[in-house]
Amino acid sequence: MEEVFRNIAVVWDYVMRHLLMINMLLAVIIVFFQRKEPKSVWAWLLILYFLPIVGFIFYLIAGTDMYKRKKFRTKEAEDQISEAIREQEHSIRTKELARERPELAGYADLVYYNLESAGAVLTGDNAVDFFTDGNEKFDALIEDMKAAKDFIHMQYYIIKNDVLFERIRAVLEEKAREGVEVRILFDAMGCRGVKHSYWKKLREAGIQTAEFFPASLRRLHLRINYRNHRKIVVIDGKKAYLGGFNIGKEYIGLDPKFGYWRDTHLRIEGTAVLGLELRFIMDWNYTAKENLFREEKYFVLPEKPCGNTIIQIIDSGPDTSLQNIHNNYLRLIAKAEKSIYIQTPYFVPDEAILNALIIAAYSGIDVRVMIPCKPDHPFVYWATYSYIGDLVQAGAKCYTYQNGFLHAKGLIVDEKVLCYGTANMDIRSFQLNFEVNAVIYGQQEAKKMTAVFENDLKYCKQITKDLYNRRSLLIRVKEQFCRLLSPVL
Fold first, then answer.
1. Cβ contact 75:282 at 8 Å
2. Are residues 195 and 238 in the same domain?
3. Of 79, 144, 263, 414, which one is the catalytic site residue?
4. pTM score of the predicted model
5. Residue 109 bears catalytic tag
6. Which of 20, 324, 334, 416 allows an S-S link to 118, with CB 3.0 to 4.6 Å?
7. Structural domain containing residue 442
8. b/e 328-346 (16+ beta carbons within 10 angstroms → b)
9. Per-residue pLDDT tens for 321-332?
């Protein structure tokens, strides 16, 4: 043992004596060998300069993307869908789409962008229900799972072994005994509190599980980037769920730290379900090293329309060359003529989105942004508050939700189109996490969610210019410090 400590001391002494050289080498790698935004480069250089040891460790955990392309190259190669896309591109070019669906007036360019960049086929035979309460969402999900006949595909960022998942687990095990295929895909970081023995018990009960981006050192998770933040459930290819709720007791209001949990989740029936099933299968194939594309039963189209709601399922992540969800937000903000309503737990935008919102506010557009009143990640929260200040000064109306914790993620434009799903309005969701959203074109759905937003305002406190300008010196220091770190949060 003494020899081990002696060796550690030797290594430590070597690192300390060569710390300047190590930091310089790392700085060269950041500047010249990684394609990071200039703001992000400067943020990392400042961290390395002022916190040389801590900064070095933090960079290894959160900053490096030297093997991102290699890591996700096979994943990118899977994400190819073409025939239906080409048909719809032709329809847009020849103006057929505008004639067939007047609801898309003014948004044909966005539809086309999503086809080209994300392979997002437009579907118009869907029915959508919105859930803002966790108990209602999970009650509906459990009832739909009980009715499953063929398969249940479940993907969550966070699954906690508590009272909520025990309810879900009982149903899944029963369905597995009935011969229904059950698959659970979970993120290693988000589910780090669940023991491997628990997943083993699920597999013994006939439930297939797969762990996305597992820890390289057993349970020691050193990588906080490239997490799979998607929340998708597909049942028999007929019903799908998508949104912000994870699985844990806090999401049904049983954690006193957060109180009531206000989120948004979608239940979809129709051909758009296929888009979410494709997304799940691509993630499953990559993680479990299977090829579910061989099974035709996962790709059966509805026999008749379930409704008339128009939807595109869009996704983005480290394996895509474009920031698809970010670019949808940016395009929707730029196209707004009357109103932009945003709900997000974290508001850490890049310059493009921030400037687009500021320009919209100065142009007389009703820009409203709703964030939580309490932080679950303090650094991100104070960076959020800093950016909110910029919008307030530009004339936007910004609010903190006071009735518990706000976790809803999305925006509504002109009461005509909305984009909701798993992506926060922050740099991490735009660039580093795997996310999925639904773009819904239609006044009926947009007005419904606008009414939900306006009802939430009853539980909000507005951040006025006067209130923001009177914040304490301590808050100002927190804001400025966290804003400097925002490119790496």
1. yes
2. yes
3. 414
4. 0.84
5. no
6. 324
7. 324-488
8. bbbbbbebbeebbbbbbbb
9. 889 999 999 999
